[in-house]
Structures are given as structure tokens and as C-alpha cells.
Amino acid sequence: MSSGPIPLPPDRPELPGPQPITGQAPIFRSPPTQPTQILRPTVPPVSEERPSRVMLADDLSTWIEDAGPGGLLRVSSATRLGLIEELTADGARLIMLCGETVEAAVTREMALARTALDVEITVVALPGGPLGQYAIARITEQALGVAGRPTSLIVSILPTLAAEIIDVALLTSVSGLDLPGVGIGRHLASILPGQRHFAVQLTPRPLVRSLTRDLLSEGFSRANFGPSGTRVLIAGPQTMPAQLEALTGVADVPHRVRTDLDLAGFWGDEQATEIVAVPKDPASWIVQRVPVQPNAPCDWCGAPMVVSASRCVFCGFVTRAG
After folding, report:
1. Is the pLDDT reported for residue 192 higher than 70?
2. Domains along the chain?
3. Assign residue 239 a region: left if phi > 0, alpha if psi is -120 to 50, beta otherwise?
4. Which of 142, 148, 233, 301 is 20 to 30 A distant from 201 in Cα terms?
């Protein structure tokens, strides 16, 4: 026997790998990669703040039913709840603007809607008339888009902003008004025979003057919104008297607002005409009047609110700061 080294077995032939079928592209082996999440599409980022919708309690075109007068407090409960449900179907929060005289009634009805529909509504009472409230509603819509000012902050200062605009009404009678400055003499003048006209200013401060006698007396506020400029709105059948332009400092041609507002019901006069002077550039005015403040979401409803606020204006949650 030979004592030489044992020969090694021949190399094992390599088996062919998978071959492409005729007409099929060749199979390439790529380096391993992370698994693709086919069943998990990319979710777009969700906005921090839900949409807000600004509404007017005196808007006759919104709060209306087939029979009967319009207005938030005049329609039936079923109609009111149905309309609110439609307005909040997309998850929007409602900002309900109303006059100071109906604040208690509107707050009561909105509390009922909040409980029945599980929606978020805040009520803001304003010192002006229907056109003044309309102007603040439009200003609010623009203010909500100003960066760094959360909705809750804008809502909390609306009464202050509303008290700074000029809101004057032209009336043939003041017998139905309960305002400072409307004394017995004014009421008597309204019911005595003869044609009379009155100018009634609600904001910035209440004032009543006779157009035929003492309108030239001082007292009416002059419009001054700084760099924002001034714009004049008017609603109702009458035109703006020239002497009122001189006293208020509003010389621009008024923009006639054609909207369904309950002027006659609020002022107690079928010929009531309301004139409002507002900033021409509301967003710029808001930037000047409302400083940027740190905010955080409400612990209950998630609405962004100023960290120093004591309660959420939408859900009423009392914070630690309160």
C-alpha cells in the first residue's frame, strides 16, 4: 500500500440558479433593504387647530325656517339644533356673536346645543348694533388667520375691539331704545307729531343727538385706526348725512352692505339705518392691537389657548392658571 497523501474528492459542481423564463427580464439580486410599508400610506400632518365658523344671532338668512320670522331666538328649537348640526358637521367650532341685551338667552340656547350635539360653541356679546356685529364677524374671520394669535385669544378680546369701532344709527324714533342719553325729552319728541331724525352712537360711547337741532354739538367720536386706514359700512334705507361725516371724520363714500340683518327689530324703527366705521385693513389692525402670546392646547377640548388664560372659551375647562 502506498503511504502517500489521500487524494481529495473532486469539487462539487455548482448547480445552476433560477433561470428566467423566455421573454422575462433577468433576475437581479439586490442587497437587502428595509421592508416597504405597502399597507401604511403616509398620513398628512393634521392641523393643530380645527376650523372656526363665525355666526351672527341676528342673521335672518341663516336662522330661518319655512314659517315664522327669522333669527336665532325666533326659530324653533328643532330648527335651531338642525342648523347648528349642519354648521358643525365638519368639526368646526362656532363663535356666536350677539347683542348684549340678548346675551343670557343666546347663552342658554347654545348651552343646550352644546349638550345635545356635543359641539363646541362660544358666545360673545358685543356692544354694537346688527351692522356693528356683522363688521366684527368679518374682522374676526381675518383675525383668525393672523399668525401667533390663537382662536381663544381673538375671541376673548372681541368685546374690546368692538367697543373701538364707530357704530351710529339714523332713526326716526328712539322711543323703543333703553340707552344712556335717551331721556324723557327724546322719548317725547319721538311720539309727538312732526318729522324728526336722530343720530344714536353706541360705540365707542353711547350718545344721542337730534339731526334737526343739536347734531352740531360735540361728542361724536372720530375714526382713527392708524396706518390701517378707515372704511365705512352702511345698511338701511337712509343715506349718511353730510354733517355726520364732518363730526365723525369719516369722509369716504360708505360701502352699502346688502345682508339680512334685523335692523328694525334691534333699533325699533322700520327706517333704521346703521353706519359703522372700521379699519380698512383688519389683519394689520389686529397685529397692532393683539400681541403674540405663548399658547398651548386646552387639556379638555384641545383648542389652542393663551397659557395665562384661566378657562377655555369653548368648553369652559378651568386651567391651573385659574
Report:
1. no
2. 52-164 (3.40.50), 166-283 (3.30.1180), 293-322 (no CATH)
3. beta
4. 142
